[in-house]
From TrEMBL:
GO terms for molecular function: ATP binding; ATP hydrolysis activity. SMART domains: AAA. Coiled coil: none annotated. Belongs to the ABC transporter superfamily. Keywords: ATP-binding, Nucleotide-binding, Transport. PROSITE patterns: ABC_TRANSPORTER_1, ABC_TRANSPORTER_2. It comes from Nonomuraea dietziae. Pfam families: ABC_tran (PF00005). PANTHER family: ABC TRANSPORTER, ATP-BINDING PROTEIN (PTHR43335:SF4). This is ABC-2 type transport system ATP-binding protein. Signal peptide: none annotated. The keyword Transport applies.
Length: 307
């Protein structure tokens, strides 16, 4: 998919499976939102196709019953009430008004259902957008940055909601920049960079691809740290006196400690965090970065899949 000379999505192929919460990760400008828009027919690929349950979105009758999506919580008529907004969407897809009331209750907006959306906070708009995605009781949910603006209670509510939907056999695709929350929410991850697929793997396996550090506990931490540094290790003393060691594997650390006559109380490998794994995977695909490289600048059970 191209915008002039810029390639936004490049030969990207993946399948989002039912029964899992799938995280959709990538740096700013990686093509996540463009990909989601292509699934909904809002962008037309220059080659290839995006399918929901084997069909293009535009060919699905009453599509909200098949796939619910949140792309931009701010894309609503501020003069309408929350109830009127959902009721309008429901009518367009042959959904009864009783479902509108149910969804407002599900997302915690019953008490403000008659209020104009223009007076809503970002978190309330996010809840409304999630409610719109749930309105058709679809088998597929696709949410772009739904955690933005949610307070801690809201984040936990959404995490539990997505888990319950996946447990019912539904397909859930979730994009977010909150790595710690993604680690708690997602079972599987799709990582893209510059529009291309970088990783398609289980959440547990992602960090496991990268060695983190080795945790070492000893009665003689300062002495051991000196020995390890002399052999090229990067050693950091943690608050409890344990050593965090990089650049040497656990077996070599054990050999050096034995040779120096230093007893070890613990020697364990710690995998990289999700954030570390993400940064390493996408370090060559980050289009906008600061000089440090650490920021960004320049109810019935239904099943489905997204391809």
């Amino acid at each position: 998919m191209r915008y002039g000379d810029k390639v936004a999505v490049d030969d990207l192929t993946f399948t989002v499976k039912s029964g899992l919460v799938t995280g959709f990760l990538g740096p700013n400008g990686a093509g996540k939102s463009t990909t989601m828009r292509a699934v909904l027919g809002l962008e037309v690929p220059s080659a290839g196709k995006a399918l929901v349950n084997g069909r293009p979105y535009a060919s699905i009758p009453r599509p909200m019953r098949s796939i619910g999506a949140l792309l931009d919580a701010g894309a609503v008529h501020g003069g309408r009430s929350a109830y009127a907004h959902l009721a309008c969407l429901a009518r367009s897809n042959g959904i009864g008004r009783a479902r509108v009331a149910d969804v407002l209750d599900q997302v915690g907006l019953t008490d403000v259902a008659s209020r104009r959306i223009g007076g809503f906070s970002l978190g309330m708009r996010q809840r409304l957008g999630i409610g719109a995605a749930l309105l058709g009781d679809p088998g597929v949910l696709m949410l772009d940055e739904p955690l933005n603006g949610l307070d801690p209670e809201g984040i936990r509510w959404l995490r539990d909601l997505l888990r319950s939907l996946a447990d019912e056999g539904r397909t859930v695709l979730l994009s977010s920049h909150l790595m710690n929350e993604m680690a708690l929410s997602a079972d599987h991850v799709i990582v893209i960079g510059r529009g291309r697929l970088i990783a398609d793997t289980g959440m547990d396996a992602l960090a496991g691809h990268f060695q983190g550090d080795v945790l070492v506990r000893t009665p003689l931490p300062e002495r051991l740290a000196g020995v390890l540094r002399a052999h090229g290790a990067a050693v950091v003393t943690e608050e409890d006196g344990a050593l965090s060691v990089r650049e040497l594997d656990a077996a070599r650390i054990g050999e050096l400690a034995l040779s120096a006559g230093i007893a070890l109380a613990e020697l364990s490998l710690r995998g990289a965090s999700l954030e570390e794994a993400f940064m390493r995977l996408t370090e060559d695909s980050t289009e906008y970065r600061t000089e440090s490289g650490t920021g960004t600048g320049n109810r019935a059970t239904r099943k489905g899949t997204v391809r």
